[in-house]
Design a protein that fits this description.
It is built from 11 helices and 19 strands. The chain has 344 residues and is of the alpha/beta class.
Length: 344
């Protein structure tokens, strides 16, 4: 088969690659669409340690079942499917409690981080365990379905965030996950939602998707401008979807006393946090790791139009152009949210 292989820092090689094996519990999927996640772009630089060459990236994808393992039930060749990115074992203590995203043997499709290597979907075929796959509704395109993994993270962030009806929420970061979290927290019952980001085009998209107000995150008075929208006490809940020191500081500052701060972004592995404000203000912190059982529901949310994803698809591309695409995205393509590789 043909695959786009990350072979060295900043190098993506379109080449022949061995077909993946299909184990007794696996589906062999012929890939029809695969989105490029921001983590793939960072991984291409060789600096994250989570895309150690050689690796076929790609964990946001959809396709058609080509073959099934001997123990597979509920799927057959020809089925249109999409799939979660987290491969969990079903056997460890966390899996047995239904905390699949915390699986002690967790792997992620398209990741190699030193202890495992699981090739992903930037290839003609990918092999996945049947329990992470979902049948696609007939009205869903492959490109739309490829974004279900992104949607599941934003939905999980909303699910992790405690909320009372009509609460005020601030979302810090208007990337794909932040924009999904904004829509999901509205479905959960939020009242006023304010989104802050540096990019005006993303703030405009946030308003189109239902934000009540947006605030540019540049300038020394951003906190005051946010408080003008939330009220002087701040927000009942804040979802931070960037993960750098400045945005986490801002998110904590705009969280009201007794409020909740949900942390999704993790660009920086370590940050400092205002411990005194967290402790004295009784602010509850919630971490978000991938998703946990929401994926199938997210496929239905997309298909029903309750969480639209078409505006997230900035462009489509061919896999053989992968090197040029990654080069351009790494340099920063203005306005880009997701580039999706499409396959004939």
């Amino acid at each position: 088969m043909k695959a786009l292989v990350h072979t060295a820092p900043y190098v993506m090689t379109y080449q022949d690659w061995e077909m993946p094996t299909c184990g007794p519990e696996d589906l062999l999927v012929r890939v029809k669409a695969c989105a490029i996640c921001g983590s793939d772009i960072k991984g291409y630089s060789g600096t994250t340690g989570r895309r150690q060459p050689p690796i076929i990236m790609g964990h946001e994808a959809a396709g058609v079942v080509e073959a099934v393992g001997e123990n597979v039930t509920g799927f057959a060749p020809g089925d249109r499917v999409c799939f979660d990115s987290t491969v969990y074992c079903l056997q460890c203590a966390y899996c047995l409690k239904g905390q699949w995203n915390l699986c002690q043997n967790r792997q992620v499709v398209g990741v190699s981080e030193g202890t495992y290597r699981r090739h992903g979907a930037m290839a003609e075929y990918v092999s996945i365990p049947q329990w992470i796959a979902v049948h696609m509704p007939g009205n869903l395109s492959f490109a739309q379905a490829a974004l279900a993994e992104t949607v599941s993270i934003g939905v999980h962030a909303a699910n992790r965030t405690p909320l009372c009806l009509n609460d005020t929420v601030v979302v810090v970061g208007a990337g794909a996950v932040g924009l999904v979290a904004m829509q999901a927290i509205r479905l959960k019952g939020a009242g006023r939602i304010i989104v802050t980001d540096l990019a005006e085009d993303r703030l405009a998209l946030a308003r189109d998707l239902g934000a009540d107000a947006t605030v540019r995150a540049d300038g020394p008075d951003v906190l005051e401008r946010l408080r003008a929208e939330t009220g002087p006490e701040g927000a009942n809940a804040v979802i931070e979807a960037v993960g750098v020191q400045a945005t986490i500081d801002l998110a904590l500052d705009i969280t009201r006393l007794g409020g909740a701060l949900t942390l999704v972004g993790n660009v920086m592995p370590r940050v400092e946090i205002g411990l005194q404000r967290v402790v004295s203000g009784e602010i509850s912190l919630y971490g978000v790791c991938a998703s946990n059982g929401e994926y199938a529901d997210c496929v239905q949310l997309i298909a029903s139009g309750r969480i639209p994803v078409d505006r997230f698809i900035s462009e489509t591309a061919c896999l053989e152009d992968g090197q040029a695409v990654f080069d351009r995205l790494y340099q920063g393509a203005e306005g880009n949210i997701r580039t999706v590789f499409v396959f004939d």
